[in-house]
Design goal:
The protein is of the alpha/beta class and 155 residues long. The protein is built from six helices and five strands. It has a single domain (5-154), classed as 2-Layer Sandwich (Nucleotidyltransferase, domain 5). Strands 3-2-1-4-5 form a five-stranded mixed beta sheet.
C-alpha cells in the first residue's frame, strides 16, 4: 500500500477576473477522489490555491505525507521558496493578494507534511490534465458560487 497521498490540482478562470473553477484529484493506494467547484467571479491564482485547500480539506488521515502536484508556479513557489512564511510574519504587508486563502492554507497545512512539485500544465500528465478538465467544466457550470474573499476585496 502506498504510504503517501498524492494531490493533483488545477485552477481555471474565464477572464481574470471572471467565472472560475478548480479541480483536484486525490490518489492514495487504490483510492481516487475528484473534487471541483465553480465560482461566478474570481481569478486564476485564487482557483489554483483553492484547489489545494479543497484537496487538503478532503483528506481524512492527517498523519500521512501529502505531495501536491500543481502547474501553478505562483502556488508552488509561494510555499517551497518560503514566500508564504514571510507574508504570514508581515501580515501580508504591501498588499499581497489572496490573504484569506493563504491564511486558510497555512492553518490547514499544519495538519500535514506537505511538499509541492511543479508540473507542466497542458502537457502529458494525465492527472494534471484531468484536473484541468474538472476546473474548466466547473468554471463553465451553471451553479456558480460566490467567491466571497475575492468579491469583498474587489469592492
Amino acid at each position: 500500500m502506498q504510504n503517501k497521498i498524492q494531490l493533483y490540482t488545477d485552477g481555471s478562470s474565464r477572464g481574470n477576473p471572471g467565472p472560475g473553477g478548480y479541480g483536484a484529484l486525490l490518489l492514495f493506494g487504490d483510492h481516487r477522489k475528484e473534487l471541483s467547484q465553480g465560482f461566478r467571479r474570481t481569478t486564476n491564482n485564487r482557483m489554483e490555491l483553492l484547489a489545494v485547500i479543497a484537496g487538503l480539506e478532503a483528506i481524512k488521515k492527517n498523519e500521512l505525507p501529502v505531495t501536491v502536484f500543481s502547474d501553478s508556479q505562483y502556488v508552488v513557489n509561494s510555499v517551497e521558496k518560503g514566500w508564504l512564511k514571510t507574508w504570514i510574519k508581515t501580515d501580508f504587508k504591501g498588499g499581497k493578494k489572496n490573504k484569506d486563502l493563504w491564511k486558510n492554507y497555512y492553518e490547514l497545512s499544519k495538519k500535514f507534511t506537505v511538499n509541492f512539485v511543479w508540473v507542466k500544465g497542458h502537457a502529458n500528465n494525465p492527472f494534471n490534465n484531468r484536473c484541468d478538465e474538472l476546473a474548466t467544466a466547473a468554471a463553465d457550470g451553471k451553479h456558480l458560487l460566490v467567491d466571497v474573499g475575492y468579491e469583498e476585496a474587489a469592492n
